[in-house]
Amino acid sequence: MQHCDTLILAGWCIPVEPHDLVLPDHGVAVTDGKIVELLPTGEARKKYAPGVLVDRPDHVLIPGLVNTHTHAAMTLLRGIADDLPLEQWLKDAIWPIENRWVGTEFVRDGTRLAIAEMLLSGCTCFSDQYFFPEIVAETAEDMYMRAVVATPVLEFPTPWADNATECLNKGAELVHDRYAEHTLISSAFAPHSTATVSDETFGELRILADQLDKRIQIHLHESAQEVEDALAATGERPIERLKRLGLINSSLLAVHAVHLTDDEIRLFADTGVSVAHCPNSNLKLADGIARITAIHSAEIPVGLGTDGAASNNLLSMPGEMRTAALLAKAESEDATALPAATALRMATLTGARTLGLEEQIGSIESGKWADLACIDLMHINSQPVYDPLSQVVYAIHPQQISDVWIAGRHQVENGALAQIDQADILRRSAEWRQQINGQLS
Length: 441
Ligand SMILES: [Zn+2]
Known about the structure:
Blueprint: E1 2-13, E2 23-31, E3 34-40, H1 41-47, E4 48-63, E5 65-70, H2 86-101, H3 104-120, E6 123-129, H4 133-143, E7 146-153, H5 164-177, E8 185-191, H6 199-212, E9 215-220, H7 224-234, H8 238-244, E10 252-256, H9 262-271, E11 274-277, H10 279-284, H11 292-297, E12 302-304, H12 317-332, H13 340-354, E13 372-376, H14 388-394, E14 401-406, E15 409-413, E16 416-417, H15 422-440
Parallel strand pairs: 1-4, 5-6, 6-7, 7-8, 8-9, 9-10, 10-11, 11-12
Antiparallel strand pairs: 1-2, 2-3, 4-13, 13-14, 14-15, 15-16
Helix pairs in contact: 3-4, 3-15, 5-6, 12-13, 13-14
The structure holds zinc ion.
């Protein structure tokens, strides 16, 4: 018998790679945080003497879900300003509240709430862009959550930095130096949008990102208004401007990309740009419907994201998978568009690829980090099980996530946070609500 730290046996395993494969009665052996082997349950029982055995016969085991775009700390603003158009929502509601309240404690508490919510809904990696990225990184590390922490870059003063140069300096110093070779934390740059960053700053950012070998993510063509305003102000569409500045390349993650022309889709495909598709946020802010079928057909890597809780209002990756699949069918008037296997792939392996992490996570393959989620299908709404893949995308509630592992560490066990003080997170959230509400009324 061979030792392994943990052996997880499940009714079904969906490794994601190979694509569209469901393996009944399979197990995953994990040692030192990494996947050693995926093999049939019978063989696994004979071959491995595990330190811990986790037996989940009614469950499906999938790679942990990857949230390619969020602003974690905005959970503390969940529901504070709903049902408003994007520009008004951002400028009249969100930015004034952020300017008044955002600081290290806000970001720490909001990020803790977000990580707890993401873990409980099967997410094992999130890509964040928010103020105080050093606090986001610290919090993710403390809670043992995988994160891509992107440094925000804006010209105007924020509670975190006075100008874009300070953003770049702080980002390079605080995040990139400290987390250079970290198991869980990696970093990127996040200019907020083309409207809030000058040509000069984009130029500096491109040089810095190249030097540090970091990826760049930006809200891009999120609304028709954004594109029109840019045209009026500069005579260029935002993508055209980024192309002129040398930022349209394979290190770019275009967040939203709702309003793309055929030429822009071709440009993304030719240059290797990735897309973070946030269907629920787009729907809620009435941004329009991304042309995901055309984008996907052009072989542009598409990951899924929740966006921040103030514009969604859930950080639920199972919800994004379902909405993405349904919306693609509606948008293309083709029921075969974005099938379940593709939605799950976007939410795992392709999402990892858009963040530059596809060698490390996103599928159940030997040598990758054991970032895994287990879903209990023995619930009324997901019975009977003809096709576990279909259930995962179309017929589960996030509460059916029974177990989550990050780099082999059991973070959610039997549907509850195993290592995190949930009562404390709830208490702090209520305190923030009281404080912010007191100021608003
Ligand atoms: Zn966003």
